[in-house]
Write a structure and sequence with these properties.
With 339 residues, the chain is mainly α. The protein contains 15 helices and two strands. Strand 1 and strand 2 (111-112) form a beta hairpin.
């Protein structure tokens, strides 16, 4: 479910992720050094496969959130926030490797998925290796609270993977059930990435809870926009082809809304194409037309705006600063990708 954040094509007056990139650039350079050093191994296949995905163009929004949150809470003189940001990225990369195997995906960010080059078994095992490295970095911070937050997130993400597997190609999946899946699969890591920023700075529980809320709601909004973008012509900007989710039979919110709002004939189409997998040329175009007629994509983005507003409001307890403004702008930018 992860995407590449596009940085080009921003129009005047639109929200931008550039301020967050600039304010975190020095720390993110250190994060990248840590990532490369911890992806090394005497087993040649491990760095080859890990670097294939690590260097494939993702903008590392989750670790940027960790860096920004920690700096907003405290000066961050040491290296702990860098280790935590790298651990967050390794957790994310591991889930991508596992996701591609479970989803049988051929592409990741417009390039062959690691499993297509090295196979499913190697992808799963290297994902496990990266998770192990992530926990080593957490331990090195000597913060039991940060270890608790990120280990809880790892468990929740795994639960989300299983929930998604159980719901795979189940066209009767409800919106509530789907929201639980993305809260676990996507939002949990965004939430933990932000919360550890306050935890490593030993800030009050109120600030830790605020950043947890910020990250969780940013993650939900981010995923909902991704769901809508999969059925839009803007997918080329994200390193994906339009309709990847459709071809893989993924039940996402635009599909759920279209199925619920459609006629009996419409519902039969969704069952045949996604649940049973009988897809033919022109089916994607018909799916998009059904979504447009029922306002499914528009309403998916509207829901994303709702969660984005919650994320922005969660930061209200923090005093004004460039970092706070940049984090708010990142929320707006994540939603504006849909336009």
């Amino acid at each position: 479910m992860g995407v590449v954040v596009p940085l080009s094509g921003q129009e005047a007056g639109q929200a931008s992720i550039e301020p967050l990139l600039e304010l975190t650039s020095k720390d993110m350079a250190r994060v990248n050094e840590v990532i490369l050093s911890h992806a090394s191994s005497y087993v040649d296949m491990i760095p080859q496969l890990a670097n294939h995905l690590i260097n494939s163009g993702g903008k590392r929004l989750r670790p940027m959130v960790t860096v920004a949150a920690s700096r907003m809470c405290a000066p961050c003189e040491g290296n702990d926030h860098v280790l935590l940001a790298a651990a967050v990225e390794f957790m994310h990369t591991a889930t991508l490797l596992h996701d591609d195997v479970v989803d049988e995906s051929d592409l990741r960010r417009g390039k062959p998925a690691a499993r297509m080059i090295w196979g499913n078994q190697a992808s799963v095992l290297v994902g496990d290796y990266l998770l192990g490295q992530a926990f080593k970095m957490m331990v090195n911070t000597k913060s039991l609270e940060c270890l608790r937050i990120l280990s809880d997130a790892a468990s929740v993400i795994a639960e989300g993977e299983v929930m998604q597997l159980a719901a795979q190609k189940d066209i009767t999946t409800t919106e509530d059930a789907y929201m639980k899946i993305i809260d676990a699969k996507t939002a949990a890591l965004f939430s933990a990435a932000a919360e550890v920023g306050a935890a490593i700075a030993e800030r009050p529980n109120e600030e830790q809870a605020a950043l947890e809320s910020f990250g969780r709601n940013l993650g939900v909004a981010f995923q909902l926009v991704d769901d809508g973008l999969d059925y839009s012509g803007k997918q080329a900007l994200l390193g994906k082809e339009t309709g990847d989710d459709f071809r893989e039979g993924k039940i996402t919110l635009p599909v759920i809304l279209s199925y619920r709002r459609g006629s009996d004939q419409d519902r039969e189409f969704w069952k045949l194409k996604l649940q049973e997998g009988h897809q033919e040329e022109g089916d994607l175009e018909h799916a998009i037309s059904l979504m447009e007629s029922h306002g499914a994509i528009e309403d998916t983005v509207a829901r994303a705006r709702h969660y984005g507003a919650i994320a922005r409001d969660a930061l209200a307890i923090f005093p004004g600063s460039d970092l706070k403004s940049a984090m708010i702008s990142a929320v707006d930018f994540s939603i504006q990708r849909a336009h």
